[in-house]
Amino acid sequence: MNKKIFITGSCGFIGYNFWKKCQKLNLETFSVDKLSYYSNKQAFVDLSKEKAIEKIDISSSKIFRLIEKFSPDVVVNFAAESHVDRSIEQPSIFLNSNYLGVFNLLISIQKFMKKKKKKIKFIQISTDEVFGSLGRNDTPKKETDNYEPSSPYSATKAAADLLIKSWIKTYKFPAIILHPSNNYGPWQFPEKLIPLSILKIINNNKVPVYGSGKNIREWIFVDDCVEAILKVIDYGVIGESYNIGSSEQYTNIEIINHLIKRLKPNDYDNRKIIKFVEDRPGHDYRYNLNISKIKKELKWTPKFSLEQGLNLTVDWYLSNLDWLQKNKKIYGVSKRIGLDKQ
Ligand SMILES: NC(=O)c1ccc[n+]([C@@H]2O[C@H](COP(=O)([O-])OP(=O)(O)OC[C@H]3O[C@@H](n4cnc5c(N)ncnc54)[C@H](O)[C@@H]3O)[C@@H](O)[C@H]2O)c1
Question: How far is Cα 333 from Cα 199, in angstroms, rounded to an integer?
């Protein structure tokens, strides 16, 4: 691949892992990120050293100028407000980034393509959450299944997907939509389940478990997700959507138990470590994706089992405790959000 890639949200968890992979592959990139409290400050330092980032909101009118200046072949949009609990408390910032931000990217790219007569492949990082909750025995969701988002977060992501689909149909806009399942791995901010649990366990604090802890998620190691996105950049068909998952489903409590066993092998008693707390309003029970399309058509398949990925993740956090503790201070780990009924 020899493409110029414009990355949005590269100081976030998946965006930074993606940028690091691009660096390894010697790909030319330029990034934007608005830099939020949960953004990775190390990422901003690294990208700034390469003079490959500008701090800017994707809903800003300046986005067009940056795209024009860099003249990319591909735009990958990771930028989004992504914390479901926060979307329950502050839905308006989710609408701004996840919907209006995408609208601004679409019209900026459109204007660029018209002016420069150059095609840009636009890749939207959507989510498995747009399909809504599955029951225990429901079959995994296909790309063509209906959208039934439950949270303000997933509703804004679904709304953006619909906007993009309309652009594809109406303007023949060269976009591809991706639906990754729950990612985990290095550099994830400790307000999400896995890094938050690691942080709580090593600090001897209780790990909060929402409701019964029986909610099921499909987990994918971030390196696998990054590889899938690269495959899509090279071989993804314009106008199509692709699910990206591992088919490995676990309850939240199973994930936490695994982490406790790993981090407290001699003192394993999860009753001492876990604290059941009030459930999230509208908490989806289960997500599960049918990933046969990307496997068959793009010859991508996940390489890491959950066991391998989680071990690598725990090892990474243990060797980067400074980073974890610093981010704990930013977040204030004891704060529970998302219980406000609007
Ligand atoms: N993490 C997951 O498990 C997961 C799963 C499926 C889909 N996704 C999607 O993947 C993408 C990346 O997720 P993540 O976990 O890396 O997110 P993240 O929350 O770690 O990072 C998002 C980054 O985007 C930036 N950003 C947010 N709004 C912006 C705006 N308006 N303008 C510029 N920058 C903005 C933030 O500052 C942050 O650095 C998101 O679109 C998310 O919806 C994530």
Answer: 9
Distance CA 38, CA 41 (A): 9
- What the block records as the tokens of 214 is 């029986």
Ligand 1 centroid from CA 33, angstroms: 10
Select which of 129, 161, 191, 227 is catalytic: 129
The preferred substitution site among 78, 96, 177, 229 for testing ligand 1, maximizing ligand atoms within 8 Å of CB, is 78
Tally of structural domains, the chain: 1
Does residue 35's CB lie within 6 angstroms of at least one atom of ligand 1? yes
pLDDT in tens, 315-325: 999 999 999 88
- For residue 42, what is the domain's CATH number? 3.40.50.720
Q: Is residue 317 situated within a structural domain?
A: no
**Which pTM value belongs to this model?**
0.97
Give phi and psi for 166, each to the nearest 5: -70, -35
Asked whether residue 196 is domain-assigned, the answer is: no
Which domain, by its residues, includes 51?
5-183+221-246+283-304
